[in-house]
Design a protein that fits this description.
The protein is α+β, with helices and mostly antiparallel strands. The protein has one domain. Helices cover about 20% and strands about 35% of the residues. The chain is built from 3 helices and 8 strands; from the N terminus they run βββββββαβαα. The chain has a 5-stranded antiparallel beta sheet. A hairpin with a 4-residue loop joins strand 4 and strand 5. It is globular and about 45 Å long.
């Protein structure tokens, strides 16, 4: 289920701190050891005011800011789906997840989660390169993303 490049919508997503809310979930890497690396896109704008928002990588080394910005209505999946609003994938929020925990929490497609579609290969590679250029990404996650394949 959690193949690199797949975009899901969890309703709700359960955070490690016990909170939950509906969230998109983009799988960036998955391996046989049941490790999933993913980004939780957000509509919350933390982009510094001096950075121009254009669809793609927003990387500012002086402020250690890194995010991938998806403009509203720009198709990002192979089935022509687009985020309905300004959406940000923040490098700081890329994290590792346990496959067994994800499968336990999200068992029924259409009830627990929706499969939105597969991110296009160009978009996926652009997101990976954006995160790999981030100085704030944890080294362990960076090493895994270097091995990610579409």
């Amino acid at each position: 289920m959690f193949e690199a490049g797949n975009l899901y919508y969890f309703k709700p997503f359960y955070f490690a701190d016990g909170n939950s809310k509906p969230k998109y979930f983009l799988t960036l890497y998955a391996d046989a050891n049941a490790v999933i690396v993913a980004s939780l896109p957000s509509s919350v704008d933390y982009v510094p005011s001096h950075i121009e928002k254009k669809h793609g990588c927003l990387n500012d080394l002086p402020s250690d800011f890194n995010a991938y910005y998806c403009s509203p209505n720009v198709k990002v999946t192979n089935n022509n789906w687009a985020f309905p609003t300004h959406t940000y994938l923040y490098g700081l929020w890329v994290n590792m997840f346990s496959l067994s925990e994800l499968e336990a929490n999200y068992q029924v497609e259409g009830v627990d989660y929706e499969f939105i579609g597969r991110i296009t290969k160009n978009e996926f590679n652009a997101i990976l390169q954006c995160f790999l250029s981030a100085r704030t990404l944890k080294n362990k996650i960076k090493r895994l993303l270097q091995r990610a394949t579409y």
